[in-house]
Design goal:
- The protein is α/β, with parallel strands linked by helices.
- 33% of the residues lie in helices and 19% in strands.
- The strands form 3 sheets. It has a 10-stranded mixed β-sheet, sandwiched between helices. A two-stranded antiparallel sheet has the order 2-3. A two-stranded antiparallel sheet has the order 11-12.
- α11 links the parallel β9 and β10.
- α7 packs across α13.
- The protein starts with a strand and ends with a strand.
């Protein structure tokens, strides 16, 4: 791949309303997963990674009036995208693109219309926030991005694919730079759907643990400003890291389960390494997808084993901090990877006790300081077998 650098970062999650708060929580190994507070569900026994603000408070952050119709997915996306744009130091929006992703769009508002629909013989209202592209449109309007917009929805690999799409758009001259990422809010539809699949844990999730029983759902948004290194240098922008490689693959095994052999995952990892011009031994850390479901963690472990053999680099999953943020997780975890590169620290896997017996590999369980961190592999694997791996490289100031 060409040298694509990251010059802007923005994130909101269960562990912070901005980049600084997220960074501080990660350094202290603080989780944002807690009993239900904001989602109006009857299932109060579940633990969720909710953003610690209601919609009115999110509007206050954005200086929006209460009369403007924005669903929670859009509000979260606006906050993270605006932070990323501001941190990039860009003065012009010429040839600036936006590639945003989401899995359920404005479903959190759509489901509020169920009861009125059932109670009325004639229903003439229009649901304006349902489609996935609605949040993309409103984010682009808020930031004044006019050159190019696109929406990606590939389940939990969505925002990782948005990052790869951004690199392609820049490579082929469609845009000079692209704001790429994703946003997803919790909804009753999501919670009930995952509950039906029986892959939710009512205790704290335990990625890569022998006793893992399921995931904790979360919400959030993250965006990265991506541009060519030469353009960043020309405008004297701060370079946070590089997207040095990435690939998308599909194992076409099942609608909601990864293949036992980890075919799609291993293919994505191998191709990402190839595009970055790296060998497995060049990776110092894997930011694993690590959802804490029995199927995913075993399948991902199988894929890692097939690529790295018995010589696994350090690895962990950050799902124990934020919960599984669905379409937003790839971008959130890409930013967490960049923070690790900057801090020379690796964030541990929370709640881990015993390794998966098939492999016996233990993720990091304590914050690890390291001076030799250069290349991070970040995995994002979605329903339908859509697997994406990105390699993020440290920026070495000249």
């Amino acid at each position: 791949m060409d040298e694509f650098c990251v010059t802007g970062l923005g994130v909101i999650s269960a562990i912070g309303l901005n980049l600084k708060e997220n960074s501080e929580s990660l350094k202290k190994s603080l989780t944002g997963i807690a009993p239900v507070e904001y989602l109006g569900t009857l299932h109060k026994d579940f633990l969720l990674g909710e953003v610690k603000a209601d919609n009115d408070q999110l509007r206050e952050i954005l200086n929006l009036g209460t009369d403007e119709l924005y669903d929670r997915t859009t509000l979260l996306g606006m906050i993270a995208a605006e932070e990323a744009f501001k941190s990039s130091g860009l003065l012009s929006k010429k040839n600036l693109g936006l590639v945003s992703s989401t899995s359920v769009g404005g479903m959190c508002y759509t489901e509020l219309e169920f009861k009125p629909y059932l109670d009325m013989e004639m229903y003439e209202d229009f649901i304006l926030t349902h489609e996935c592209a609605s949040s993309t449109f409103h984010i682009s309007e808020k930031l004044g991005i006019r050159s190019y917009t696109d929406t990606i929805s590939t389940a939990c690999s969505s925002s990782a694919n948005a990052i790869l799409e951004a690199c392609k758009l820049i490579k082929h001259g469609v845009c000079d730079r692209v704001l790429a990422g994703g946003t997803d809010a919790l909804s009753l539809f999501t919670l009930n759907g995952f509950n039906t699949l029986m892959i939710l844990d009512k205790e704290m999730c335990r990625p890569f643990d022998q006793s893992r029983a399921g995931l904790n759902l979360g919400e959030g948004a993250a965006y990265l400003m991506i541009e060519k290194k030469s353009d960043a240098i020309q405008r004297n922008a701060e370079i946070f890291a590089y997207i040095s490689g990435g690939a998308n693959a599909n194992d076409a095994f099942h609608q909601t389960a990864s293949s036992p052999e980890g075919r799609g995952a291993s293919a994505a990892i191998i191709k990402a390494l190839e595009m970055a011009g790296l060998k497995p031994e060049d990776i110092q850390y894997i930011n694993a997808h690590g959802t804490a479901t029995p199927n995913n963690d075993l399948s991902e472990s199988t894929a890692i084993q097939s690529v790295f053999g018995d010589h696994w680099p350090d690895f962990s999953s950050t799902k124990g901090y934020t919960g599984h943020t669905l379409a937003a997780c790839g971008a959130i975890e890409a930013i967490y990877s960049i923070l690790m590169l900057q801090d020379r620290s690796l964030y541990p896997c929370l709640n881990f006790k015993e390794p998966i017996p098939e492999f016996g590999k233990r993720p990091l369980t304590k914050l690890k300081k390291t001076e030799n961190l250069r290349n991070i592999l970040s995995n994002s694997f979605g329903f339908g077998g859509n697997c994406t791996s990105i390699i993020i490289q440290k920026h070495e100031p000249s």
